[in-house]
Amino acid sequence: MKFCWTTLHVNNMEESFDFYTRIVGLEVDSRLKPNESYEIVFLGSQDTKIELICDSKNEKKEYGKDISIGFEVRSLDDTIQILREESIEIVEGPVQPNPKTRFIIALDPNGMRIQFVERSL
């Protein structure tokens, strides 16, 4: 069995698309709009993708505080600076659970907890 993707139902596709492409740095794999109110975007260049789905006819989505998605970054300090410049709130961290790992948690435009993790060798 192979893990393929994580689906996020989002409130605003353009805000979410901007966050995951410009801030997180994911590449667009595919983008489809089967009808006027429904859009699907797959992001990521590796085997595992993030699928964003926006259905403007549905109610606003809210995510729980106990779920997060993690992305590895080269420099946590650079990532913190970018998030601050973009007025994206860091809700936790930096945390260093061991000598080789540091992370922060920020919120995406929908309130999903996103971990940015720096690992040293």
TrEMBL record:
Pfam family name, one: Glyoxalase
Organism, as annotated: Sediminispirochaeta smaragdinae (strain DSM 11293 / JCM 15392 / SEBR 4228) (Spirochaeta smaragdinae)
Residue span(s) of domain VOC: 2-119
Designated name of the protein: Glyoxalase/bleomycin resistance protein/dioxygenase
